[in-house]
Design a protein that fits this description.
The complex is a heterodimer of chains A (about 190) and B (about 325). With about 190 residues, chain A is mostly helical. In chain A, about 70% of the residues lie in helices and about 0% in strands. Chain A starts with 14 loop residues before the first helix and ends in a 5-residue tail after the last helix. The chains are: A mainly alpha (about 190), B alpha+beta (about 325). Chains A and B meet through helix 2, helix 3, helix 4, helix 6 and helix 7 of A and helix 1, helix 3, helix 4, helix 5 and helix 6 of B.
């Protein structure tokens, strides 16, 4: 179901949904919610470690999607990436504005240093489910130190220096782990060449 | 191909980890370099996939309705709104636009809008309450942090005061120890001197010299010799008065030498025949076997020539 597009990525089946939303189609927004809400909520919950706040952020993110769908540029990335970035930014802003980062990290510490292999217990869109499984499998193949660095980079809202201090590794080492890990992850989850 | 440093920046940028001047520089590069922009977009796409790593969470049952209710009453701006309005007027978005209305539906539609509006307002009020609670919590946290800082500052002040006090006490103790050490050293030196004096005293050679003179049988002398300082004192009494061209001469007999060692000449009081004579041997003396006094010509001689007048046993 992935068809390569002009910019080298598989055709994004969700991009048309955003186009319809940009046209004011509420039904399309409902469809997009059904497809994205679970991974978005999971990621935000992972960042905030609070169900009520996570749902608040997801709610605000979908309202933002409703208002800004016309700004989405399909040549820059997938619809999921666009919506996820928009949502994550809100979650990280919440983390910083509450000045409770250290508390939240302490609360979520047990999962910080390990890849959670628990399979989703809910049914979600089949293609996203496959994508999620592929990402989790690829993530599990990364060296542990690269997984740690990437998890902190994506979910913690910490700065480079703070990640370095948290992992007790030199800053240069942390940067290198993030780069290598992300490149390897990209290669592992990339769709096969057409 | 891009260099490793740029690739690293691209990866960090994908996680929004580039900040400050570095971010400004990198953003300018992204505007100028489409190829770099594509790499960053590609990496951000991968970074976004990290969301799938998070453990699954099930949304609340009402979240979907809340989202849709809010969006139904949220005005949109920009190109999307204009396009939507244009489509509605032109009939392009026919699927979700009702082209006509019936009087019987108007009431239902108004009721539905009213219900959605009420739900939205209720939800908004709930959110505002929640945000207010968050702000209150933040304020309480800030106050708590301020109190903690005050406490920490006070603790540091107390610790600093205690440390100053300890330092002063330590300095006083060091001064007292210095004094004590000086006293101990002084006492030790005195004790050493005393021990040395005792040792010297123990090593003193004391001898009594008896008369060999028929005309002065009661003449006596006592010689005391300190082997460490190689000095001695001879005290004589009742020796006959000397003729003007004569001297008494003291001799120290040390077995290591073939002849007695010259101890110097002395005279006696003509009336009492007494003298106290401090002497030194002419050569280094190890062992004293005897002391002797002879009558010699004035000024003394290197080897005894005259008669012996006193000798120790």
């Amino acid at each position: 179901m992935s068809v390569p597009s002009e910019h080298g990525r598989p055709a994004d089946l969700d991009a048309p949904l955003l186009a319809r939303i940009a046209d004011g189609d509420q039904a399309a927004l409902g469809e997009l919610y059904d497809r994205f809400s679970r991974p978005l909520l999971a990621a935000v919950h992972r960042i905030l470690n609070d169900q009520r706040e996570a749902e608040d952020i997801v709610h605000d993110a979908f309202v933002a999607v409703w208002q800004k769908a016309a700004d989405y540029d399909p040549t820059r990335g997938s619809a999921f990436s666009w919506v996820m970035t928009l949502t994550r930014n809100r979650a990280l802003d919440r983390v910083r504005s509450r000045k409770r980062r250290s508390e939240l990290l302490a609360q979520s510490a047990p999962a910080d240093l390990g890849y959670d292999q628990t399979p989703p217990d809910v049914v979600q869109a089949a293609d996203l489910g496959e994508r999620g499984a592929a990402v989790r499998k690829a993530f599990g193949e990364l060296p542990a130190e690269q997984r740690q660095a990437i998890e902190l980079a994506y979910f913690s809202g910490l700065t480079q220096q703070e990640i370095s201090e948290r992992l007790r590794q030199p800053l240069g080492t942390v940067k290198a782990r993030i780069r290598r890990g992300l490149l390897k992850l990209r290669d592992l989850v990339a769709p096969p060449a057409p | 191909m891009i260099d490793e440093r740029t690739e690293e920046l691209a990866a960090l940028h994908a996680f929004d980890l580039v900040e400050g001047p570095e971010l400004a520089d990198f953003s300018r590069r992204l505007e100028r370099e489409p190829a770099l922009r594509r790499i960053v977009d590609d990496l951000r796409e991968t970074a976004s996939a990290c969301a799938f790593v998070a453990p699954a969470v099930t949304p609340s049952a009402g979240l979907r309705d809340r989202v849709l209710a809010t969006c139904a009453t949220t005005p949109r701006t920009g190109p999307a709104s204009q396009r939507s309005e244009s489509d509605a007027h032109g009939g392009g978005g026919g699927d979700n636009v009702t082209p006509f209305s019936l009087p019987a539906w108007t009431g239902w539609a108004a009721a539905a809008v009213f219900a959605l509006l009420a739900a939205y307002l209720g939800f908004t009020a709930s959110r505002l309450d929640y945000q207010l609670a968050l702000l209150t919590e933040s304020e309480a946290l800030a106050a708590l942090q301020a109190r903690s800082l005050d406490t920490a500052l006070e603790s540091e002040r107390i610790v600093s005061k205690e440390q100053t006090l300890r330092l002063k006490t330590a300095e006083q103790r060091v001064a007292a120890l210095d004094t004590e050490l000086a006293q101990t050293r002084s006492a030790a030196l005195a004790q050493i001197a005393e021990l040395k004096a005792q040792a010297d005293l123990a090593a003193l050679k004391i001898a009594t010299l008896n008369s060999l003179l028929g005309n002065a049988p009661d003449a006596t002398a006592v010689a005391v010799w300190n082997p460490f300082s190689q000095e001695g004192v001879l005290t004589v009494s009742q020796l006959p008065a000397l003729a003007p061209d004569k001297d008494y001469q003291l001799w120290v007999v040390d077995p290591q030498y073939s002849i007695p060692v010259d101890g110097g000449v002395f005279t006696v009081d003509a009336a009492t025949g007494e003298a106290r004579f401090q002497f030194k041997a002419d050569k280094p003396v190890d062992t004293i076997a005897k002391f002797a006094v002879s009558l010699e010509r004035k000024g003394g001689v290197p080897k005894a020539e005259g008669p012996m007048v006193l000798i120790s046993p």
